[in-house]
Design brief:
Elements (H helix, E strand, L loop, with lengths): L1 E4 L6 E6 L5 E7 L4 E9 L5 E10 L8 E5 L2 E8 L2 E13 L5 H9 L13 E9 L5 E5 L14
Antiparallel strand pairs: 1-2, 2-3, 3-4, 4-5, 6-7, 7-8, 8-9, 9-10
Length: 155
Protein backbone atom coordinates (compact mmCIF):
# COMPACT_ATOMS: atom_id res chain seq x y z
CA UNK A 1 0.00 0.00 0.00
CA UNK A 2 1.12 3.52 -0.73
CA UNK A 3 -0.04 6.67 1.00
CA UNK A 4 0.17 10.12 -0.55
CA UNK A 5 -0.36 13.22 1.56
CA UNK A 6 -0.39 16.91 0.88
CA UNK A 7 2.32 18.16 3.23
CA UNK A 8 0.83 21.67 3.11
CA UNK A 9 -2.82 20.68 3.68
CA UNK A 10 -3.60 17.39 5.42
CA UNK A 11 -7.35 17.52 4.68
CA UNK A 12 -6.72 15.27 1.65
CA UNK A 13 -4.97 11.96 1.32
CA UNK A 14 -4.69 9.17 -1.22
CA UNK A 15 -4.10 5.46 -0.72
CA UNK A 16 -3.19 3.08 -3.52
CA UNK A 17 -3.75 -0.64 -3.07
CA UNK A 18 -2.76 -3.69 -5.15
CA UNK A 19 -0.17 -4.35 -7.83
CA UNK A 20 0.19 -3.86 -11.60
CA UNK A 21 -3.22 -3.86 -13.32
CA UNK A 22 -5.00 -4.89 -10.12
CA UNK A 23 -4.58 -1.48 -8.49
CA UNK A 24 -7.25 0.75 -7.05
CA UNK A 25 -7.13 4.09 -5.29
CA UNK A 26 -9.12 5.91 -2.65
CA UNK A 27 -8.99 9.65 -2.07
CA UNK A 28 -10.30 10.96 1.23
CA UNK A 29 -11.50 14.58 1.18
CA UNK A 30 -11.99 15.45 4.83
CA UNK A 31 -13.31 18.95 4.05
CA UNK A 32 -16.11 17.67 1.82
CA UNK A 33 -16.48 14.57 4.05
CA UNK A 34 -16.36 12.25 1.05
CA UNK A 35 -14.33 9.30 -0.14
CA UNK A 36 -13.70 8.82 -3.87
CA UNK A 37 -12.94 5.35 -5.22
CA UNK A 38 -11.03 4.71 -8.45
CA UNK A 39 -9.90 1.73 -10.50
CA UNK A 40 -6.39 2.25 -11.84
CA UNK A 41 -5.45 1.07 -15.31
CA UNK A 42 -1.81 0.95 -16.37
CA UNK A 43 -1.10 2.63 -19.71
CA UNK A 44 1.61 1.67 -22.20
CA UNK A 45 3.79 4.64 -21.10
CA UNK A 46 3.90 3.31 -17.50
CA UNK A 47 1.38 5.85 -16.21
CA UNK A 48 -1.98 5.08 -14.65
CA UNK A 49 -5.43 6.18 -15.60
CA UNK A 50 -7.74 6.71 -12.63
CA UNK A 51 -11.26 5.56 -13.52
CA UNK A 52 -13.82 7.01 -11.17
CA UNK A 53 -16.05 4.39 -9.53
CA UNK A 54 -18.05 6.18 -6.87
CA UNK A 55 -18.21 8.85 -4.18
CA UNK A 56 -19.15 7.78 -0.67
CA UNK A 57 -20.10 10.10 2.22
CA UNK A 58 -17.79 9.68 5.21
CA UNK A 59 -19.24 8.69 8.54
CA UNK A 60 -17.31 10.21 11.46
CA UNK A 61 -15.01 7.58 12.91
CA UNK A 62 -12.46 9.30 15.10
CA UNK A 63 -13.61 12.63 16.45
CA UNK A 64 -10.40 13.43 18.25
CA UNK A 65 -6.92 12.23 18.93
CA UNK A 66 -5.32 12.34 22.30
CA UNK A 67 -1.75 11.37 22.97
CA UNK A 68 -0.50 10.24 26.31
CA UNK A 69 2.58 8.30 27.26
CA UNK A 70 2.53 5.28 29.53
CA UNK A 71 4.99 2.41 30.08
CA UNK A 72 7.06 3.31 27.00
CA UNK A 73 4.06 3.53 24.67
CA UNK A 74 2.35 6.48 23.09
CA UNK A 75 -1.37 5.96 23.47
CA UNK A 76 -3.46 7.11 20.52
CA UNK A 77 -7.06 7.35 21.62
CA UNK A 78 -10.16 8.48 19.85
CA UNK A 79 -13.83 7.70 19.56
CA UNK A 80 -15.41 5.15 17.32
CA UNK A 81 -19.16 4.56 17.45
CA UNK A 82 -19.25 6.64 20.66
CA UNK A 83 -16.83 4.24 22.38
CA UNK A 84 -13.37 5.28 23.42
CA UNK A 85 -10.71 3.27 21.65
CA UNK A 86 -7.00 3.14 22.42
CA UNK A 87 -4.10 2.01 20.30
CA UNK A 88 -0.69 1.55 21.87
CA UNK A 89 2.05 2.78 19.56
CA UNK A 90 5.82 2.65 19.70
CA UNK A 91 7.69 4.32 16.88
CA UNK A 92 10.97 5.66 15.65
CA UNK A 93 11.11 8.95 13.82
CA UNK A 94 13.30 10.30 11.08
CA UNK A 95 14.04 14.00 10.75
CA UNK A 96 12.55 15.53 7.64
CA UNK A 97 12.14 19.07 6.34
CA UNK A 98 8.32 18.80 6.55
CA UNK A 99 5.95 17.21 9.00
CA UNK A 100 4.81 13.84 7.62
CA UNK A 101 3.31 12.64 10.88
CA UNK A 102 -0.22 12.73 9.43
CA UNK A 103 0.88 10.28 6.71
CA UNK A 104 1.49 7.67 9.40
CA UNK A 105 -1.88 8.36 11.03
CA UNK A 106 -3.61 8.03 7.65
CA UNK A 107 -1.84 4.73 7.05
CA UNK A 108 -2.45 3.27 10.50
CA UNK A 109 -5.97 4.52 11.17
CA UNK A 110 -7.86 6.00 8.17
CA UNK A 111 -9.40 8.88 10.09
CA UNK A 112 -12.51 10.46 8.63
CA UNK A 113 -12.09 13.70 10.54
CA UNK A 114 -9.26 16.20 10.02
CA UNK A 115 -6.13 15.62 12.04
CA UNK A 116 -5.58 18.79 13.99
CA UNK A 117 -2.40 17.65 15.73
CA UNK A 118 0.61 19.64 14.67
CA UNK A 119 3.87 18.26 16.08
CA UNK A 120 6.37 20.94 17.06
CA UNK A 121 9.12 19.33 15.01
CA UNK A 122 9.26 18.05 11.44
CA UNK A 123 9.68 14.30 11.02
CA UNK A 124 8.42 11.14 9.39
CA UNK A 125 7.65 7.90 11.21
CA UNK A 126 10.41 5.47 10.22
CA UNK A 127 8.94 2.38 11.89
CA UNK A 128 6.06 1.67 14.24
CA UNK A 129 4.38 -1.09 16.18
CA UNK A 130 0.67 -0.63 16.88
CA UNK A 131 -1.29 -2.77 19.34
CA UNK A 132 -5.03 -2.55 18.73
CA UNK A 133 -7.78 -2.89 21.36
CA UNK A 134 -8.28 -6.57 20.35
CA UNK A 135 -4.52 -7.14 21.03
CA UNK A 136 -3.65 -7.69 17.37
CA UNK A 137 -0.30 -6.18 16.43
CA UNK A 138 0.56 -4.28 13.25
CA UNK A 139 4.08 -3.34 12.17
CA UNK A 140 4.85 -0.43 9.84
CA UNK A 141 8.11 0.35 8.06
CA UNK A 142 8.84 3.44 5.99
CA UNK A 143 10.19 2.30 2.63
CA UNK A 144 10.69 5.67 0.94
CA UNK A 145 9.67 9.29 0.83
CA UNK A 146 9.22 10.68 -2.66
CA UNK A 147 8.09 14.18 -3.53
CA UNK A 148 5.49 13.95 -6.29
CA UNK A 149 3.15 16.33 -8.03
CA UNK A 150 -0.15 14.61 -8.59
CA UNK A 151 -2.87 16.03 -10.79
CA UNK A 152 -6.17 14.29 -11.36
CA UNK A 153 -8.17 15.71 -14.27
CA UNK A 154 -11.60 14.89 -15.54
CA UNK A 155 -12.06 14.19 -19.24
Amino acid sequence: MRVFVNSEDNFYYLKIFGKDNGRYAIIWDLRAKKRYDFDMVKNADNTYEFRFERAVPLEPKNNSYDFTSENGYVILSGKENNKKTCKYVTFGKKEYDKSLFSAFLYLADEPTEPILLKPKENFAIEYAKVILPNNSVHHYQLKSILEKNLLLETK
